[in-house]
């Protein structure tokens, strides 16, 4: 294959700078020693990272997000695995419609979901509770969990299951000893992607979270709405660093474009 | 087993997820549609009568028309920007040495999984009024004399949205590039085509479905974007989703907010379904 | 009653008939091949014996027990799949042990039997290898060991050698054969490779379009094909048109004494059964191709193109352009009257 020419590489450089610049600027400003937003020209300082400790609402919001992400992606995966097996193993009427139904949260604007859930939970009397947040997040991350478990389940050589059956495996044994271990990579990456989606979700959650159940992105969003100062940049830098770490692990394990293609094909 | 017809098994595997979706997706959406037909008063709150007044207001008041038009304009421009830059970049990535490619894929696709608030905050810092880094840079290389207004402008929202959505476009074009037979380009070149002709006559027609389906994704996500227009656009430069948010959480006129949200949902679903159908009909042969 | 009895098996998918009128009796210890091109119904038959496909109608009886009503997990058959279908997350030994575990066999005798089975297929020392780290041939052996270690009443082989290269395939053929002979396990092989079927089996079941064309020993099926399909599927065949006149077969200039009523007949002849002679069917050599152990000739005759194979045994042979006469021993030819009204 022909190599990229000079023009292509120049374009590429500009493109990469464009993609990286806003993220980089957040991380750099976070190290400012000044009391206001500025590029750290007089040396680097960790003062704004230390300052996070003085704002317990960020810490609390962080743990809320972690808990919410872990619980909702776990529930989503538990629901997605049997559904993925049904989709990959059986032919039944309405299959296409049902899978479109399960993927539909990808198509619905999160503002609409936020409004619908707010009305629903208010009527149900659980508005602002953790339970409400978990239910809402399970719905929005379910498509991601389903996509990845489904591609693992369809990609698997079916004769391996036939072999296990012919050797006398019962349905339960078949699932526990053969099917689950074989789709496990898909299940894990489905969980991880769901977790990240839940952890980053802000638009829907901003409608649903009450002061006790604010997630980190919601807290950050509300903070930024009031004023932008170095504190929120250091919080953002921490979030970026954590995401980077998860990202690199996912990339090493499964290859990023494989994980993300479940993410991009929302219309197919 | 091999035939895969076992109604009991299918039902029991699919039932939990289906029940959940009906209970906490279908019902809330129906409730929202109903809500949009209720009336609201400053002192009465939500009255569960049945009126079209919210819908009439949304469709007749030019204030709403302007906001929906702005939403469309911003989404269209962000999509255009993403396609113009994302598609060539995907092609450059494809031709890159695999070792470098892995790194740059991570750099370009990685932001997809990063907090939208953090990414938008970055743009707010870059724009940052008159002495934002972007303006300082543009003035530094002599491209402009006076600082351009980015913050609280449509231009700023479009740029930030294009950045947020760019990974979707690159992924989509990348996927269609993956399906290409690498020999086809060589075949065209062996027949005497120049690099430019190869791109225009051979490559572009084949990756067009990828660009178009990427555009559909980017457009739909831009039209429903919330955090980016809220932060960069501020309180004055409203789009459909920030409008619905304000009606809900500031004005507290839930029925009107519901009408705006339902209209946004219907608009986006229609656009996605229609353009998908168009793309698939037009490129049915290429998709095979 | 035979050991395995398949009677009146029929399978339809909607309006499509995948298999019909399938009747087969298999004796204990026999090696049977189901042979035919893809879509002939051989795999469907195997799937029905294994229990992964339900017959639309018909019976499958193994040792007096009805198999159709039995779930596949309870049938106790050993199956070697085309893709081998090894459990990629288990080692070779764990793969082989799986079926024993399912049978609740205690650890000690399990380990013993796994060791034996792997030794039998020549994989001593590979116990802890994962399938990914083994060659195609080695994976194949693990699959065979896994299927046989449960001491199945029947061993089903679904195109087991099709993923191996030619040399490996031959090696595995003779190994499979010797293992099968040693254990005496009744074996049913599904294949589209007539060489493989003939090399391995006691009897072949030649199938086409969902029907059985012939059930016979390989020699019988090759020498006396029951139909032109069998004849052409089991190797190259020349079909010449001739006529019987008063006890003499006339094919062009060729004459031979035969019994039978007067009238036109189709004469089928294997290429290697034809020889160059001083009299017989007249023709001209148009091309010849060297194939190592033999020469393959194309001879143009008044009857059309005829294919002739001659041993490369050092005897002088004709070259392109030579005028030749073709003859054969009447015992080597097949005569058929069907479908000859128009020659």
From TrEMBL, chain A:
Keywords linked to the UniProt accession: Cell inner membrane, Cell membrane, Membrane, Transmembrane, Transmembrane helix, Transport
Organism name: Paracoccus chinensis
Protein name: Putative spermidine/putrescine transport system permease protein
Main localization, broad class: membrane
Membrane topology field: Multi-pass membrane protein
Family: Belongs to the binding-protein-dependent transport system permease family.
CDD domains: TM_PBP2 (cd06261)
GO biological process, one term: transmembrane transport
Membrane-traversing stretches: 7-31, 66-88, 100-121, 133-153, 174-196, 231-250
Cited InterPro entries: MetI-like, MetI-like_sf
Subcellular location: Cell inner membrane; Cell membrane
One Pfam family linked to the record: BPD_transp_1
The ABC transmembrane type-1 domain, residue ranges: 62-250
GO CC annotation: plasma membrane
SUPFAM superfamilies: MetI-like
TrEMBL record, chain B:
Subcellular location, record wording: Cell membrane
Residue ranges of the TM segments: 12-38, 72-91, 103-126, 157-177, 210-234, 254-279
Any one GO biological process: transmembrane transport
Bilayer topology annotation: Multi-pass membrane protein
Entry keyword annotation includes Transcription regulation: no
Keyword Cell membrane in annotation: yes
Annotated ABC transmembrane type-1 domain residues: 68-275
Name of a matching Pfam family: BPD_transp_1
UniProtKB keywords: Cell membrane, Membrane, Transmembrane, Transmembrane helix, Transport
A cellular-component GO term for this protein: plasma membrane
CDD domains: TM_PBP2
Signal peptide feature range: none
Main subcellular localisation: membrane
UniProt similarity note: Belongs to the binding-protein-dependent transport system permease family. CysTW subfamily.
Stated name of the protein: Putative spermidine/putrescine transport system permease protein
Protein species of origin: Paracoccus chinensis
Lineage: Bacteria, Pseudomonadati, Pseudomonadota, Alphaproteobacteria, Rhodobacterales
From TrEMBL, chain C:
InterPro entries documented for this protein: AAA+_ATPase (IPR003593), ABC_SmlMolc_Importer (IPR050093), ABC_transporter-like_ATP-bd (IPR003439), ABC_transporter-like_CS (IPR017871), Mo/tungstate-bd_C_term_dom (IPR008995), P-loop_NTPase (IPR027417), Transp-assoc_OB_typ2 (IPR013611)
GO BP term, example: quaternary ammonium group transport
Keyword Transferase: no
Keyword ATP-binding tagged: yes
Keywords: ATP-binding, Nucleotide-binding, Transport
SMART domains documented for this protein: AAA
SUPFAM superfamilies: MOP-like, P-loop containing nucleoside triphosphate hydrolases
Entry GO MF terms: ATP binding; ATP hydrolysis activity; transmembrane transporter activity
Gene Ontology cellular-component annotations: ATP-binding cassette (ABC) transporter complex
Domain of life (superkingdom): Bacteria
UniProt xrefs under PROSITE patterns: ABC_TRANSPORTER_1, ABC_TRANSPORTER_2
ABC transporter domain location: 4-234
Gene3D superfamilies linked to this entry: P-loop containing nucleotide triphosphate hydrolases (3.40.50.300)
Name by which UniProt lists this protein: Putative spermidine/putrescine transport system ATP-binding protein
Species this protein is from: Paracoccus chinensis
């Amino acid at each position: 294959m022909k190599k990229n020419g000079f023009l292509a590489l120049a374009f590429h450089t500009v493109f990469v700078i464009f993609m990286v610049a806003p993220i980089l600027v957040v991380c750099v400003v976070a190290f400012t020693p000044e009391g206001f937003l500025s590029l750290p020209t007089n040396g680097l300082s960790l003062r704004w990272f230390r300052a996070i400790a003085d704002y317990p609402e960020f810490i609390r919001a962080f743990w809320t997000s972690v808990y919410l992400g872990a619980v909702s992606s776990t529930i989503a995966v538990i629901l997605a695995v049997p559904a993925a097996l049904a989709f990959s193993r059986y032919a039944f009427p309405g299959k296409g419609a049902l899978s479109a139904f399960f993927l539909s949260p990808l198509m619905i604007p999160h503002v609409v979901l936020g409004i619908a859930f707010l009305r629903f939970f208010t009527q149900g009397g659980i508005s602002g509770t953790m339970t409400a947040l978990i239910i809402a997040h399970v719905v929005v991350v379910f498509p991601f969990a389903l996509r990845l478990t489904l591609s693992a389940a369809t990609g698997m050589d079916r004769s391996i299951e036939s072999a296990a059956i012919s050797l006398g495996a019962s349905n339960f044994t078949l699932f526990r000893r053969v099917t689950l271990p074989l789709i496990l990579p898909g299940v894990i990456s489905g969980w991880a992607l769901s977790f990240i989606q839940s952890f980053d979700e802000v638009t829907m959650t901003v409608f649903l979270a009450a002061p006790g159940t604010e997630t980190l992105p919601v807290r950050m969003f509300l903070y930024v709405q009031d004023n932008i100062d170095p504190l929120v940049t250091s919080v953002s830098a921490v979030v970026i660093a954590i995401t980077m770490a998860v990202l690199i692990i996912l990339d090493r394990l499964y290859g990023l474009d494989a994980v993300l293609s479940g993410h991009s094909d929302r219309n197919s | 087993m091999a035939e895969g017809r076992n109604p009991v098994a299918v039902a029991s595997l699919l039932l939990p997820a289906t029940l959940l979706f009906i209970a906490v997706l279908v019902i809330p959406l129906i409730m929202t549609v109903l809500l949009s037909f209720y009336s609201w008063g400053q002192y009465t709150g939500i009255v569960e009568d049945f009126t079209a007044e919210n819908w009439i207001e949304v469709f007749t008041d030019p204030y709403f028309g302007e906001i929906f038009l702005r939403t469309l304009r911003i989404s269209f421009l962000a999509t255009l920007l993403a396609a113009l830059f994302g598609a060539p970049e995907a092609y450059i990535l494809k031709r890159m040495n695999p070792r470098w490619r892995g790194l740059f894929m991570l750099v370009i696709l990685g932001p997809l999984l990063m907090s939208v608030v953090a990414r938008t905050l970055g743009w707010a810092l870059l724009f940052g009024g008159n002495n934002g880094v972007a303006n300082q840079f543009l003035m530094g290389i002599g491209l402009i004399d006076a600082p351009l207004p980015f913050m609280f402008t449509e231009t700023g929202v479009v740029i930030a949205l294009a950045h947020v959505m760019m990974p979707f476009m690159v992924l989509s074009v990348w996927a269609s590039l993956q399906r290409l037979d690498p020999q086809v380009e060589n075949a065209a070149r062996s027949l005497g085509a120049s690099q430019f002709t190869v791109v225009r006559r051979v490559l572009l027609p084949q990756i067009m479905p990828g660009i178009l389906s990427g555009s559909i994704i980017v457009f739909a996500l831009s039209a429903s974007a919330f955090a980016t227009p809220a932060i960069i656009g501020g309180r004055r430069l409203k789009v459909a989703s920030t409008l619905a948010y304000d009606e809900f959480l500031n004005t507290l006129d839930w029925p009107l907010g519901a009408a705006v949200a339902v209209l946004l949902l219907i608009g986006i679903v229609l656009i996605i379904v229609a353009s998908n159908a168009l793309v698939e009909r037009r490129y049915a042969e290429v998709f095979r | 009653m035979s050991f395995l009895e398949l009677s009146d098996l029929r399978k339809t998918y909607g309006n499509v008939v995948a298999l019909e009128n399938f009747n087969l009796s298999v004796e204990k210890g026999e090696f049977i091949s189901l042979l035919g091109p893809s879509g002939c119904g051989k795999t469907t038959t195997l799937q029905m014996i294994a229990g992964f496909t339900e017959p639309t109608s018909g019976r499958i009886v193994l040792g007096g027990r009805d198999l159709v009503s039995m779930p596949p997990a309870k049938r106790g058959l050993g199956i070697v799949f085309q893709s081998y279908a090894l459990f990629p997350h288990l080692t070779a030994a764990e793969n082989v042990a799986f079926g024993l575990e399912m049978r609740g066999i205690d650890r000690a005798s399990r380990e013993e039997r796994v060791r034996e089975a792997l030794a039998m297929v020549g994989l001593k020392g590979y116990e802890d290898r994962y399938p990914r780290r083994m060659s195609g041939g080695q994976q194949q052996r693990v699959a065979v060991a896994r299927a046989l270690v449960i001491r199945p009443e029947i061993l089903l082989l679904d195109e087991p050698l099709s993923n191996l290269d030619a040399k490996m395939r031959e090696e595995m053929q003779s190994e499979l054969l010797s293992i099968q002979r040693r254990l005496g396990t009744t074996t049913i092989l599904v294949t589209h490779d007539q060489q493989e079927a003939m090399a391995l089996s006691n009897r072949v079941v030649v199938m086409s379009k969902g029907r059985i064309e012939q059930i016979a020993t390989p020699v019988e099926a090759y020498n006396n094909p029951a139909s032109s399909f069998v004849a052409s599927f089991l190797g190259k065949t020349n079909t010449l048109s001739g006529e019987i006149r008063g006890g003499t077969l006339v094919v062009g200039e060729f004459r031979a004494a035969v019994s039978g009523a007067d009238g036109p007949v189709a004469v089928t002849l294997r290429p290697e059964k034809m020889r160059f002679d001083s009299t017989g069917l007249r023709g001209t050599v148009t091309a010849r191709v060297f194939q190592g152990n033999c020469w393959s000739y194309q001879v143009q005759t008044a009857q059309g193109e005829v294919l002739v194979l001659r041993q490369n045994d050092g005897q002088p042979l004709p070259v392109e352009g030579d005028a030749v006469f073709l003859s054969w021993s009447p015992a080597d030819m097949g005569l058929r009257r069907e479908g000859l009204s128009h020659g």
